[in-house]
Amino acid sequence: MSSFSGIWVPLVTPFRQGEIDFSALKSLCTRMLKRGVDGVVVCGTTGEAPMLTKEEQLQVLDAVLEIVPGNQVIMGLSGTHMPVIREMQDAISRRPVAGFLVPAPYYIRPSQPALVAWFTEIADNASVPVMLYNIPYRTGVQMELDTLRQLAKHPRITAIKDCGGSIDLTLSLIADGELDVLCGEDVQIFSTLSLGGAGAIAASSHIFPEEFVALIKQFKEGDLIAARQTFFGLLPMIRLMFSAPNPAAIKFALSLDGLMANELRSPMLPAPENVETAIRNYLNQHSR
Length: 288
Ligand SMILES: O=C(O)C1=N[C@H](C(=O)O)C[C@H](O)C1
Known about the structure:
By secondary structure, this protein is an alpha/beta fold. 47% of the residues lie in helices and 14% in strands. Helix 7 (167-176) links the parallel strand 8 (157-162) and strand 9. Helix 1 crosses helix 2. The longest helix is centred in the last third of the chain and has 18 residues, at 224-241. The radius of gyration is 18 Å and the shape is globular. The mean pLDDT is 97.
């Protein structure tokens, strides 16, 4: 069973005049690979997955797979209706992906046993590893430690994208050693890696990806002082990238480099002008 580690970029989905800009998407993939990231996540939160039809999600995946080897691609699998999830899972399984990233069903706020049943059904149907996506502030439901421990016993559930915001939960999971723990909350990347986390899925790694890659290397080499310096160097940029609802700030920053249009799908809006000004000023002073 493969394991997940290092820096994985949850790709934005570029749009132009309302349509997916596949050419911009492929160029972005090439750029991220050249800069040394370990892999990409397709149709995560940052990819505006809820604003894509299922057919569009598969088209995005196919475009990414033209550039990125399948063992470096994790596909987001989200929803609230199991038959639709299963259909999508079967369609994705016909492609060579490394794993599924699966959040709890949002809006419904199921019980903890219901979450165990939900993820178990998805994992039973999975031909590749499942990464749990614990993001209670988006789904409305916290995945508790006991629930995660129960799910970790499933042979197909091998990793977690941890956005739970609880240091206690994070360190318990790392100490258990049953799941690869990837930080999903960009400002917590240094603390998660310090505790022994396997890596990060960080939207802000679209910007200066090589610095995030360097951070992982410094941790691997045990150079905590250099890692701390790299992290504090990245911190103002990370904060800027989350100063508007994600991925508005990231798309604006990428548009400044001419990589895509600054376009999001409703109900998302471009970042407000003061955020865009702050990003422009910051990147003018810190471009690499
Ligand atoms: O798309 C993702 O995966 C990520 N989503 C988080 C969010 O905005 O909820 C942020 C994280 O950097 C990656």
